[in-house]
What we know:
4 helices, elongated, single chain, mainly alpha
Amino acid sequence: MKQVVIVNALLAILLTAVPVVAMFVAQGQSSPSGIGFAVLLYEPFDYAYLAFAAAVFSAVNVRFAVRRWGYRAATVGVALVVSSVVTLIWFLAAVVIVAQVHSMLGGQL
């Protein structure tokens, strides 16, 4: 259980780092200042990054659940529900973090 929490936390940090780093890299260039929001929400299509994060969290949590309790429909179902909750919490936190970095860099919300 502890290992699953650590892996989910590391994945959340890595997934959040992508739009934040994009904002810092684009700061001095002529690209729009809201590039972090674009990466998080709209690139390459609406909510693609959220779908990618949900797939990554689901794959990791299902793998850990099946390895620990065996392959059963209930095990996979519980792992998918946990993955959905983790994805929702990550997404809300990522939006807040990207908004904070955006305003810290001089952008307006």
